[in-house]
Structure prediction request, 218 residues.
Amino acid sequence: MNRLALFDCDGTLVDSQHTICTAMDDAFIASRLDPPGRAATLRIVGLSIYEAIQALLPEGDDALHRQLAQDYKAAFHRMRGNGQVDEPLYAGIAETIDALETAGWTLGVATGKSDRGLALCLAHHGLTDKFVTLQTASRHPSKPHPAMIEAAMAEAGASPATTVMIGDTSFDMAMAVAAGTRALGVAWGYHPVEELHHAGADAVVAHPREIPAALEPA
Prediction:
């Protein structure tokens, strides 16, 4: 079986918080609602957009949730068209991906982004060819459902015993637990370290350069 290192995107590979928070605030304002603000929005990064809206506005009905989700997507697309999408790679990520590739790891992504959003993000950073499996919210239930990991393992020829999910949120860790894989948390993202441990992280690293060693057996 291949060894599969499966990365989350937002908050793990790239720091997209400015764009996500701006688009979410714009969506709420379009429906004449008070915007949730940065702290609340960062709590739901990683969920698929509809589930994220539900979490932010549990008192809303289905029609409002769907409208907000559409307005969020429209705001994001508008920002992209205006060259305002800001998704920089975290320092050290590119070098870490190269190191894992050299060490023989098969690489993949499991993200709450859409197919289009992930493709554009990876292409912008020249990383498209680094990943053999890309799993997104366009084709799967929201995290922490294990479908993304299960599909990634099937495509990559990996098993739960040879797969590690790497992410910054409790949703990533819970998804790994549900899929029966190892879970490696990263401390530079959007959920506190203690929440990663509570959700099932086997370990948490403080910098991307620590990832290769953390993936090897003790």
Q: What stands out?
A: Residues 3 and 105 are 5 Å apart (CA to CA). The chain is about 45% helix and 15% strand.
